[in-house]
Amino acid sequence: MKQLPVTTMFDTPVKQQRHVTYKRREVKIYRPMEETLMDELGYTYSDLVKKGIRTIWNKRQTEKALTL
Fold first, then answer.
1. In this structure, what are the phi and psi dihedrals at residue 32, rounded to the nearest 5 degrees?
2. Which residues contact 41 (CB under 8 A, 6 or more apart)?
């Protein structure tokens, strides 16, 4: 049987926010892409990031399953 990790009241809580920092030259590239996708899909920036993560995750899981 799998044991759950022991936690205490002193454990650091999982943060609900993250910060993205772009290199100066990346801003001109990513900002228009983000704005266009958010406008066209009706997503917030947070939605866009989560959708991107899910898409990459699902693609990797599918690729792993095909190689087994």
1. -65, -35
2. 47, 48, 51
**How far is CA 4 from its chain centroid?**
25
Q: How far apart are CA 53 and CA 47, in angstroms?
A: 10
Angle formed by the axes of helices 24-41 and 45-67, nearest 10°: 90
42: left (phi over 0), alpha (psi -120 to 50) or beta: left
Could you report the per-residue pLDDT of 4-56, keeping only the tens digit for each? 777 776 777 888 899 999 999 999 999 999 999 999 999 999 999 999 999 99
Altogether, the residues listed in the chain come to a count of 68
CA 51 to CA 61: how far, in whole Å? 15
